[in-house]
Specification:
Blueprint (H helix, E strand, L loop, with lengths): L2 H13 L4 H14 L3 E2 L13 E6 L3 E6 L11 E6 L4 E12 L2 E9 L12 E11 L4 E7 L33 E4 L7 H12 L5 E13 L4 E3 L5 E4 L2 H16 L6 E6 L16 H9 L3 H10 L1 E5 L2 E2 L22 E3 L10 H14 L4 E3 L11 H9 L2 E6 L1 E3 L6 E4 L2 H14 L5
Parallel strand pairs: 1-2, 4-13, 4-14, 14-18, 15-19, 16-17
Antiparallel strand pairs: 2-3, 3-13, 5-6, 5-10, 6-9, 7-8, 7-10, 11-12, 12-20, 16-18, 19-20
Helix pairs in contact: 4-9, 7-9
Length: 431
């Protein structure tokens, strides 16, 4: 595909993935369409040489893998890691607020969100809902309103004259979105969800909503923008761009090698959960791929993990926030992320491997090191590396406005990332 076609496919993926649950469903649908067999952790697995499989946990994390040809596991597993979650506003359990004649919903900030861009956006609502059916069974389904149903209005500058000098946002009082005029005292979120479920999943016969995990999201679709189409703007680029690139590379590979894509939830809040990178999901799957402990240990030591999570490009208005010698640029290729204090798991060996992969794939490559007087974020790389003992390189596509409701990448970088990850999946020998 051309990078234009790649970006349209990426846009479609992001648009269908407003929450980690929807992202996992989107990944699963694409894998099933490509002929991958879905597995269930509650059942026995009969894995075969040359087989292609995927499994999900909590409906918000997914692992897909190819067994490769005979002897592939002995050569190591080519692993690509990413995460399905993004900072957002999550609806509280008893969220209804009726004040000043308006109906609002209380929200909790999920992850390290940039809050200012959430104001004055056309917001919708999506997530997972658990309900009782008419037959009395418990059932869960995904729901997505798709249409704009809410907004967080800004306070007019006339009532907040110092807003441009010092914006202070109180998550408790300033962020509840407005959904409607509060004219009907019987109206509540569960009734709204029940109506929406009945329309979207009529075969389930939903009778009573019991609980939910819902997030607000911006309805503005992804777009290629700029005078010459140099930029790609979208919500949740961190880290759906990496999920998409890893999936596309896995599907495009020759599948002769043992390859694995792991996309986990809860990275933005520390990864400590049953389906996060600091949980047992990947280890449990590896135990079933290679049941013998000694053989599994050898396989892991032959393996490499490419931890893919977006990197900070040099912002032209804030260039001083970067180390002058390590400032990634948009449309200049994937970024190797390095930190001596192990906030990233990259080593000289794994960085060299990734540089070699980029050269072989004809892809430019960059480096990022945070300024020595600034703190450094982290990724699933160090977590997974320390849990498995697998050699790891942390990389990512350069972006602006990370953790905003709308982020910006270079329009050529998704294709660069896919090309090098595909080459990684096809490589017969690692290091």
């Amino acid at each position: 595909m051309t990078h234009t076609a790649t970006n349209q496919d990426l846009a479609d993926f992001i648009q269908s993935s407003p929450t980690p649950f929807h992202a996992t469903a989107s990944l699963a649908a694409r894998l099933a369409l490509a002929g991958f067999e879905q597995l269930d952790e509650r059942e026995e697995w009969a894995l075969e040489t040359g087989g292609r499989y995927f499994v999900s946990r909590n409906n918000s994390s997914l692992i897909a893998f190819t067994m490769g040809d005979a002897g592939a596991l002995e050569r190591g597993i080519r692993m690509i890691g990413a995460h399905t979650d993004s900072p957002c506003l999550r609806v509280k359990p008893q969220p209804e607020i009726n004040q000043q004649g308006l109906w609002q919903l209380g929200v909790e900030v999920y992850g390290g969100a940039l809050l200012a861009p959430w104001f004055d956006r056309d917001l919708s609502l999506a997530g997972r809902v658990t309900f009782r059916t008419a037959e009395g069974a418990l059932h869960s389904e995904l729901v997505d309103f798709k249409r704009p149903i809410a907004v967080i209005p800004s306070l007019a500058i006339h009532l907040n004259r110092g807003v441009n000098d010092n914006l202070c946002i109180n998550p408790q009082t300033h962020l509840p979105p407005v959904l409607a005029m509060a004219l009907d005292p019987s109206r509540d979120l569960r009734a709204l969800l029940l109506s929406e479920l009945t329309q979207q999943h009529p075969d389930c016969q939903p009778a009573q909503v019991l609980d939910y995990e819902l997030s607000f999201y911006d309805t503005q679709p992804p777009a290629t923008i700029g005078l010459d189409g140099d930029f790609f703007a979208a919500a949740r680029l961190d880290n759906l761009l990496s999920c998409f690139a890893g999936l596309t590379a896995l599907l495009a590979s020759n599948q002769r090698e043992a390859c694995l894509l792991v996309c986990t939830d809860h990275e933005e809040v520390g990864s400590t959960s049953l389906c996060g990178a600091d949980g047992p999901f990947l280890e449990d799957v590896l135990h079933r791929i290679v049941p013998d402990r000694t053989t599994r240990g050898r396989t892991v030591q032959h393996s490499i993990l490419v931890s893919a999570d977006n990197a900070h490009a040099v912002h032209p208005n804030f260039a001083d926030r970067h180390d002058a010698n390590h400032g990634p640029r948009l449309n200049a290729g994937p970024v190797i992320k390095i930190n001596s204090n192990q906030r990233y798991a990259t080593t000289s060996e794994t960085a060299a491997l990734f540089r070699d992969l980029c050269e072989q794939a004809g892809v430019p490559v960059q480096s990022f090191v945070v300024r020595s007087d600034m703190g450094c974020g982290s990724t699933i790389g160090p977590i997974t590396s320390s849990r498995l003992g697998v050699r790891t390189v942390d990389i990512g596509a350069p972006t602006f406005a990370m953790h905003s409701i709308r982020e910006l990448a270079g329009s050529r970088d998704p294709d660069y990332l896919i090309r090098v990850l595909t080459h990684f999946c096809d490589r017969a020998t690692l290091i």
